């Protein structure tokens, strides 16, 4: 089977994550699923060995990808997404999600929608900050990361840190949905640039 | 006849029930399984609890030990949770290093403790910079029938309320800690985070408290952790089908009701234990 390797390096300010997609490729019999592709995500931190926090993030990214990738078109194969953190200056998970999505598109993996990651931070007065830096994240009362799909801006994935109220959640979600427009426009522009050359 | 259909087409089998707004075990879509909690059953632990959510059984044992506070926060102690999913609880797990589900559950519980501030880490400090309490919370699943996160959160909360810390005085002459086992005090529990889990079916239907079969057939899951003021400590949605804002609102209201149910149950249990 032909191995397809594609890379993408999106940067959110100073946060950058390198993503590589391998697949659809051979899968070990123990991990094989008879009617769809097996998705694997590997997140490597900048320093140190991957730990429990990385495993948790891998699960989040993998489940988000599984919701959009049309695995049924490639049964009994594996699609591996490898993410390497190059630099972390805040909003890391959102950057990883964007990197994974663009790498999957670049590799030509069939998907039903695109997805993007957006981070919101709520500070002590209740002010909303989109795409916070590491310093803002640390001082914030709550940090919410969402993954939204491109078709109807539905919430695919959410993970939060800190305490916040129901109303604030709806506010952040609405802000994230508005911000996702910019991210999808960026996807469109970079893909247009890439394919207009060749 | 029905058993044959269930094996061949499990999803269709479920859909037949969902169309009538109920589930194969007779519950409604928004109904939780019978919750039972038992406190202080493990004599060797400093705090313990056993929670049963239908068939899902999780036991939590807390041991308190001494430790040096972290250098960047000399007035804080530690709370170290660990979720153990062994082959004992389900055929899906193998013996050996913790699998992905156990690691994700441990991280989830650590996040809930951190976000909700259920125990203020400053309360765990004995002598700033020198000595602090370390609470090792071991959550062991005895039977995995779905909705492990809710059961673990509840077990942890009940066990934390049961923990008694002995009084410690630092002897100035020898600089050693003296523990008085006769005088014990309960931990100061500031909030009561309660988790409510939902499973998403076919991108539209939300059912509460999924069993293991339902979790396998679901297209997505969502866990909401709320405290008594209606503040959210955690909105854990690890991928799966998309949800609109309106659906999220429904989940929130269900989580609020569930919080009241769980709080009432816990208060009853603790009241019945007081005369000790």
How do the strands and helices of this protein lay out in sequence?
The complex is a heterodimer of chains A (198) and B (276).
Chain A: E1 5-8, E2 11-12, E3 15-25, E4 38-44, H1 52-68, E5 78-87, H2 92-107, E6 115-122, E7 128-130, H3 134-139, E8 142-149, E9 155-162, E10 164-165, H4 166-197
Parallel strand pairs in A: 4-5
Antiparallel strand pairs in A: 1-3, 2-3, 3-5, 6-7, 6-8, 8-9
Chain B: H1 2-8, H2 10-19, E1 35-39, E2 47-53, E3 56-67, E4 78-84, H3 100-116, E5 125-127, E6 131-143, H4 148-162, E7 164-170, E8 177-186, E9 194-201, E10 205-208, H5 212-217, E11 220-226, E12 231-236, H6 245-273
Parallel strand pairs in B: 4-6
Antiparallel strand pairs in B: 1-2, 2-3, 3-6, 5-6, 7-8, 9-10, 9-11, 11-12
Helix pairs in contact in B: 1-2, 3-4
Q: Could you characterize the architecture of this molecule?
A:
The complex is a heterodimer of chains A (198) and B (276). Helix content of chain A is 36%, strand content 32%. Chain A has 198 residues and is an alpha+beta fold. In chain A, strands 1, 2, 3, 4 and 5 form a 5-stranded mixed sheet that branches. In chain A, strands 7-6-8-9 form a 4-stranded antiparallel sheet, sandwiched between helices. Chain B has one domain (29-271): 2-Layer Sandwich (Ribosomal Protein S5, domain 2). Helix content of chain B is 30%, strand content 32%. Chain B is built from 6 helices and 12 strands. Chain B starts with a helix and ends with a helix. The chains are: A alpha+beta (198), B alpha+beta (276). The A-B interface holds A 52-53, 55-56, 58-67, 144, 147-149, 152, 154-166, 169-170, 173-174 and B 100, 103-104, 106-108, 111, 114-117, 219-220, 227, 230-245, 248-249, 252. Strand 10 (164-165) of chain A pairs antiparallel with strand 12 (231-236) of chain B, so a sheet runs across the interface.
